[in-house]
Structure formats: structure tokens, C-alpha cells
Amino acid sequence: MNPISPHLDPALAARPLAEVRNLLKIDWYRCPIERDRLKALSERSDARGTAQALGHLGLLLATGTLTCYLFAQGQWVGFFAALFVHGTIASFLTAPHHELCHGTVFRTRWLNEFFLRIFSTLGWLNFYVYKFSHSYHHRYTLFQEGDREEVLPATPSLRFLFLLQLFTVNVTGGYQSRGILPTLRNALDLARDRFDNPFNSWGPELYAEHPDERRKARNWSRWLLAFHAGAIVGASALGRPEIALVVSGGPFIANWWRYFVGVPMHCGLRSEVGDFRKCVRSITLDPLTEFLYWHMNWHLEHHMYANVPCYRLPSLYREIAADLPRPRTLLGAWREMRTTWKRQQSEPEYAFDTPLPTPPDRSAQPPDRLAASIGELAPAAIAER
User: Fold this and answer.
1) Cα 23 from Cα 29, distance rounded (Å)
2) Helix axes 109-122, 211-237, angle to 10 degrees
3) Looking at residue 259, what is its pLDDT?
4) Which residues form the domain of 226?
5) What letter would DSSP give residue 29?
6) What gap in Å lies between CA 229 and CA 223, rounded to an integer?
7) What is the spatial distance between Cα 196 and Cα 59, in angstroms, rounded to a whole number?
8) What share of the chain is helix, strand, coil (3-state, %, to 5)?
9) What does the pLDDT look like over 171-223, one tens digit per residue?
10) What is the pTM of this model?
11) Which of 59, 111, 216, 278 shows the greatest Cβ crowding within 10 Å of its Cβ?
């Protein structure tokens, strides 16, 4: 989990979220698209969802099995290399967790829920908390009053000691980086029904009005601790500690690539602006990384039309590309973020203002529930009617 942002305004953080939901209404600009085409792109597929989910799990199983085999054979160079690859893949468990929380991956709902629980368990992730948090993030993206999942400015850090953790074992975590200690501390706090810091910059206000939902989040945290404690104890009893390392330690090993890919989504961009093209960034990636990231590199398109399944986001991009800024390369995004961050050291209010191909035309498409849908992300307690 990320530490609480020092940039969060205490006055805004203290505001009841029921009041935020009632008063903060953002007229988001969305690139024009024919409704029938959007409806087609929003179709969910069990076949494509299964290929995506089993493909990711298959890579985890293959690298985990190879890691355990090489450990048993005492082939230490091969073991550490395989563990590095396994950790790199495991660090992307946040991607399926995110997509499955939206409920848009599978046409069959129970398949979505089934895989959500598998990926959440393996990744030490609490989807009950995330659904609450991420619902606000989508509705109020970078409007600090309602979005405390992403509070800018943020630091695209390249500090040596931080990178050392990312390439080995992530202990303390950081922005877009999950460390062992904060993850374990967060899980223990939630399991004890302490919600002082349930996710990123959220405090107890996230669940202040929803004791039933809070109980679900607490019980899931208890399940996570029980599962991973069982995995560690069971592996130790079998005399196979490498199994525990692969199953429970994977998400905290070799986080490097997930960090470099994940930071560009919002970092350095404008806050408090009702145009996703200004506050979200898409990047191009190689096919394997895009697969592991569940196509969330098309992040601008995802925010604009969040009901579109992840595997259809490239098609959505092609449909509305003329009204979008060009996607950055990963290297180009990092240069942009680092340049922005350096300027923010002397100009704290500065943010990169993405040039747009066309000015927003809010008359081009009338308000539409399908266009504004965030899938099945929002729990019933905070769903818009």
C-alpha cells in the first residue's frame, strides 16, 4: 500500500463522502463515438476473459514450478534467475485484481468473481476496499475532494536504494510500489477492524457510513492472513520453504517492471480538470507486458469508457484516436514525468498540460449511462442510481 500523501488537504479529507457524492458532479468530456459501436466494444467475452486469466496464472505456475525445481536441485544461479522472473510476473497481480473489480472481464458473473478471489488472494489484495476506493477514483479522477487513491503531485523516484528494493525484495514500498511491511501492516490493521489507513490516502471516512461493507473488508483481510500463514506453515512443515517464497513472497520480489509501467498513468498530469485527456496518460508497450498489465497501458481510454473490457481497449483507441493525444512511449512518459517533477521542486503548482488535437466539444455526444458506466465496480452502497 502507498503511504498517505503529504499533499492531501486535511480540510477536504474531513468532508463526509455522502456530501461529496451529492455535491461534486463533474461534467467529464468523452470523445464522441457512436452508441452502437460503444455497445459492441462493451461486450464481455468468457473466452477472451478465460484466455487472459488462465494465461497469467499459467505463467505464474510455470515460473513458480521452475523456481521450486531449481531450488530443490541446488542450482542457485538458475533459481535466483527464475525467482526474479516469477516475481516480475507476480508483481502484476494488481492488474487482474483491478480489471476483475470492474466486473467487465467475463460475460458470466460467477467466473469474474471466482478469478477475482484467486488473484486477490495470491496478490495480498483486498478487493472490498479497492472497489470502494476505485469507484471514487473513476468518478472524481484527480479531484482531491473525491479521489484519494491518486493524490498529486507524486514523485517518479529513481533513487538508488528504492530501485535496489524494486530489483530485489520490496520491503518498505512507495508510490506504485507494494512493500512487505506496509502490506502486512495494512492487512493486520484491517483484520483488527482498524481502518485508519485502509488504502493509499484514505482514512476511516471511506467506510464511515457503511458498517456492513467494512465488515466484509475486515473478513477478507482475515482470510488473506490465514491463507498466507497456512502457506508458510505448510511449506515449512514439508521442508520446502521455497514454496512459501513463491506463493506468498512473489508479489514483493522484482517489482521493477510493474513500477516503471504503472507510474505513468497519472503522475505529473493536471488535477481538477474535467477532461481525461489532461489527467490520464496512455503508453505503448510490448505485447507481453501489455498482456501482463491486462491492457491498462490504454489507461486514458479505460477512464473515458470504463465499461469497455480491457482486451477491447486497443480497438477503442483506434475508434477515437483522432480526438486523443498520441500515446507516449514508456521512455517518453518517464522523461515527461521527470522533467515535470524537477520543475515542481521550484513551482509546486506546476503540472504537465497535455496538448490536445481538438478542443472539447461537449455538444458532440449527449450524456449517456453506458458511456459513463464504470462496470460493476461500485458496491451497491455507493452506486449511482
Assistant:
1) 19
2) 60
3) 98
4) 10-382
5) B
6) 10
7) 36
8) 60, 5, 40
9) 999 999 999 999 999 999 999 999 988 877 888 888 888 999 999 999 999 99
10) 0.93
11) 278
Q: 381: how many CB neighbours lie within 10 A of its CB?
A: 12
Amino acid present at 77: V
158-191 b/e (C-beta count within 10 Å ≥ 16 → b): eeeebeebbbbebeebbbbbbbbebbbebbebbb
How close are the terminal C-alpha atoms of the chain, in Å?
A: 31
Identify the residue whose cell numbers are 498489465: 293
Give the number of other CB atoms < 10 A from CB of residue 236.
12
What's the grid cell of residue 349?
503548482
Nearest CA among 270, 265, 228, 274 for reference residue 125? 228
Do residues 44 and 309 lie in contact, with contact meaning Cβ atoms separated by under 8 Å?
yes
Owner of C-alpha cell 467466473: 111
Decide if 206 contacts 198 (C-beta within 8 A).
Answer: yes
* Residue 283: inside a domain: yes
Bond into 357 cis (ω within 30):
no
Query: Per residue in 94-135, pLDDT tens?
Result: 999 999 999 999 999 999 999 999 999 999 999 999 999 999
Reading the block at residue 360, the C-alpha cell is: 472539447
- Is 166 part of any domain? yes
Nearest alpha-carbon partner for 120 in 51, 57, 194: 57
Work out how many domains the chain is built from and give that number: 1
Q: Show the cell assigned to 40.
A: 459492441
Amino acid at 79: F
Residue spans of beta strands (DSSP E) within the chain? 283-284, 328-329
Alpha-carbon distances of 66 from 60, 249, 254, 256, 342, rounded to whole Å: 10, 15, 16, 21, 43
Eight-state DSSP code of residue 5: P
Please enumerate in sequence order all residues whose Cβ is within 8 A of that of 6, keeping only pairs 6 or more positions apart, or say none.
none
Residue found by looking up cell 477503442 in the block? 316
Task: Note whether residue 4 is domain-resident.
Answer: no
Using alpha carbons only, what angle is made at residue 305 by residues 150 and 338, rounded to the nearest 5 degrees? 40
Q: Nine-digit cell at 322? A: 483522432
Where do the DSSP E strands lie in 281-375? 283-284, 328-329
How far is residue 256's CA from residue 286's CA, in Å, rounded to a whole number?
A: 16
Q: Count CA atoms closer than 13 A to 270's CA, side-chain side.
A: 11
Residue 21: CB atoms within 10 A of its CB come to 17
Cell numbers given for 285? 508497450
Hey, is 220 helix, strand or coil? Answer: helix
